[in-house]
Design brief:
The protein is mainly alpha-helical and 201 residues long. The chain has one domain. Helix 5 packs antiparallel against helix 6 and helix 5 packs parallel to helix 7. The radius of gyration is 18 Å and the shape is globular.
């Protein structure tokens, strides 16, 4: 259903704006992501409040959005898979954060390890684009990589200063998981390819 709606939108656009098949495919994928995000986000929050973790999920969604948005990551191939993956990311993070208890020293050590890992992954892979939504200009790649460093650092600094255990854990775990999502291993496991690599072939 989502695909048909998006295809109809692109067909209307193509009648008014000339575009080749390759550009049409990129635009179609972008519209599918936007249209697909609406029910995914709606379902994410409805279920989270039913499960009694709504405010934690909302916090995680807002707090991790900057780092997730600029560092990129793989995309699952179907809307259902994307919905399930998104729910697992946020719900899993929240439940782990509620379960894990760290003393102050352990928290600092874990945060430092996540920081070093995240910096290394950003250096190697960010911004992690996809074949359908490639980042082809050096300027955009440079800006997003710089912002990835900034948001990674700011998120972990906030995690250190936030005293509420669950909220602090959400930030630390979220940064770690998102840093995993941009790695070559994650792309291989999900059968994805970095967009800039695909366009260089």
């Amino acid at each position: 259903m989502v695909e048909k709606i998006c295809k109809w939108i692109v067909d209307k656009m193509r009648k008014k704006v000339p575009m080749d098949d390759e550009k049409e495919e990129v635009i179609l994928y972008g519209i599918q992501l936007i249209v697909g995000e609406i029910p995914k986000i709606f379902l994410l929050f409805i279920l989270s409040f039913i499960l009694g973790i709504g405010w934690y999920v909302l916090f995680a969604f807002i707090a991790l959005m900057p780092y997730k948005g600029v560092s990129g990551g793989f995309h699952l191939k179907s809307h259902l898979g994307c919905i399930i993956g998104t729910c697992l990311f946020y719900y899993g993070n929240v439940y782990l954060s509620k379960f894990i208890v760290m003393d102050t020293v352990t928290k600092y050590i874990v945060t430092a390890v996540v920081f070093l890992f995240g910096i290394a992954m950003v250096t190697l892979y960010a911004p992690a684009d996809t074949e359908n939504l490639p980042i082809l200009t050096k300027k955009e790649r440079r800006i997003k990589k710089t912002l990835s460093y900034i948001f990674l650092v700011l998120t972990l600094v906030a995690a250190i200063f936030i005293q509420e255990r669950v909220l602090s854990n959400i930030l630390i775990i979220g940064v770690f998981i998102q840093s995993l999502f941009i790695t070559r291993v994650a792309y291989k496991l999900t059968n994805n390819k970095y967009g800039y690599e695909a366009y260089q072939e």
